[in-house]
Write a structure and sequence with these properties.
With 123 residues, this protein is α/β, with parallel strands linked by helices. The chain is built from 4 helices and 6 strands. Helix content is 38%, strand content 24%.
Length: 123
């Protein structure tokens, strides 16, 4: 699976994804660290990546209900250090890889995560 890590995501998380056998790229590597969120959504859709971010605006973009891709994982953790993010991300990938492949918004919190299938608001 391919991942696009937003600016707030640690390079350590990109490294973890690579170690798990995924293809992962950080927006800094692409020179897109200051790009608007919609540009990152378009980039992720074009190359089939899942966006990983701390930015709730990605959820707002997907909430318009017209996009079925890209999948987005949004972290809302009390501890945003790479170790905490990586631990929660590993659980999500073990349990929800199929949903991410099909199109999903996953909001990851300290003790749980919520999955919304894309497009949001459509059956």
């Amino acid at each position: 699976m391919r991942f696009l890590a937003d600016a707030g995501i640690s390079p350590e998380t990109v490294e973890l994804l690579t170690q798990l056998g995924h293809e992962a790229t950080h927006v800094r590597t692409l020179g897109l660290q200051r790009a608007p969120d919609v540009v990152l959504v378009d980039r992720a859709r074009a190359d089939g990546s899942v966006v990983i971010t701390f930015d709730l605006d990605f959820g707002d973009i997907l909430a318009l209900g017209v996009l079925n891709k890209p999948s987005v994982i949004i972290f809302r953790l009390s501890d945003e250090r790479a170790d905490a993010v990586n631990q929660r991300l590993t659980v999500v990938l073990e349990e929800r890889l199929t949903e991410l492949q099909l199109g999903a918004l996953i909001l990851v919190e300290d003790a749980r995560y919520r999955v919304r299938k894309l497009p949001i608001g459509r059956s």
